[in-house]
Specification:
Layout: E1 26-29, E2 34-38, E3 42-46, H1 49-59, E4 69-77, E5 80-88, H2 96-99, E6 108-116, H3 124-139, E7 145-151, H4 159-163, E8 167-179, E9 182-185, H5 192-204, E10 210-221, H6 229-241
Parallel strand pairs: 6-7
Antiparallel strand pairs: 1-2, 2-3, 3-4, 4-5, 5-6, 7-10, 8-9, 8-10
Length: 256
């Protein structure tokens, strides 16, 4: 078997985690490199891909993973693993430049999946996102921006992202198809090679599917504000001069 070369934009291999973690909030180091951020009561740290995949498959509402993920983080409360975040490429990695001009597929991360146990206290999602940003700042300084979406289909509008200082940069409408109790993204109708069995099933039975149109709210986080000030300027330019509202929340509710 050949040697598997780890891509240079992947997170560093951390080695073994320390046997004990203190009460002071800060960076956590494995035997080889930085592994996470937090303290004994609450921390975010790298976990094996297989462990993250198993948890997402069994606990996340979608029941599916995103194969593009290559950063796998556990959310630990008092030493117990109560949550998982998976970060990676977007559905179309080559379009990174369309979101923030001048960046490529290795200069950003998209939050592909996030699950947190109901036992976690209030605001744990935002705290976990904030700690993840601090980890990226130290371990992956080439990551200039982060992206995630809040999904109206799930009744989510992005409160946790705003609390973690993500910028709201607009919304778009996406079509979903409901079929036999399952929800299918419209992309599966055309992405024949990537759609797999789900895509084939939707295309075969599209006449029986019910169409829904929902908004998805885009949020962008900035781990390296100082180092990537041009990125900040480009995003602010889009928000101000592109006529995008800063927050989807107003006195009269969501903007159309």
């Amino acid at each position: 078997m050949g040697v598997v070369i780890r891509p240079p934009h992947f997170p560093p291999e951390t080695g073994e985690m320390p046997s004990s973690i203190g009460d002071a909030v800060g960076y956590l180091y494995g035997s080889r490199d930085v592994a996470g951020f937090g303290c004994r009561q609450f921390f975010v740290a790298q976990i094996p891909r297989r462990q993250a995949v198993d948890i997402i498959l069994s606990r996340h509402y979608s029941g599916r993973i995103v194969n593009n993920s290559y950063v796998h983080q556990g959310i630990f409360l008092d030493g117990k693993l109560l949550g998982v975040m998976q970060w990676g490429y977007a559905l179309n990695p080559a379009r990174a430049d369309k979101v923030v001009s001048g960046t490529n597929s290795t200069a950003y991360l998209e939050l592909n999946r996030m699950w947190l146990d109901d036992l976690a206290p209030r605001n744990s999602e935002s705290r976990a996102l904030s700690y993840a940003i601090k980890y990226f700042r130290k371990a992956m300084p080439w990551v200039a921006w982060l992206q995630s979406f809040a999904d109206e289909r799930c009744g989510k509008y992005g409160v946790v992202y705003q609390a973690a200082n993500f910028l709201y940069v607009g919304a778009h409408k996406t079509r979903f198809y409901e079929l036999n109790g399952q929800c299918y993204h419209e992309m599966l109708l055309t992405a024949h090679r990537k759609g797999g069995q789900r895509g084939a099933f939707l295309r075969e039975h599209i006449g029986h599917a019910k169409l829904h149109v929902f908004r998805q709210f885009r949020y962008v986080g900035l781990p390296q504000k100082e180092q990537h000030i041009e990125t900040v300027h480009k995003i602010v330019f889009v928000i101000v001069f592109g006529c995008m509202v800063f927050s989807p929340f107003g006195q009269k509710g969501l903007h159309p």
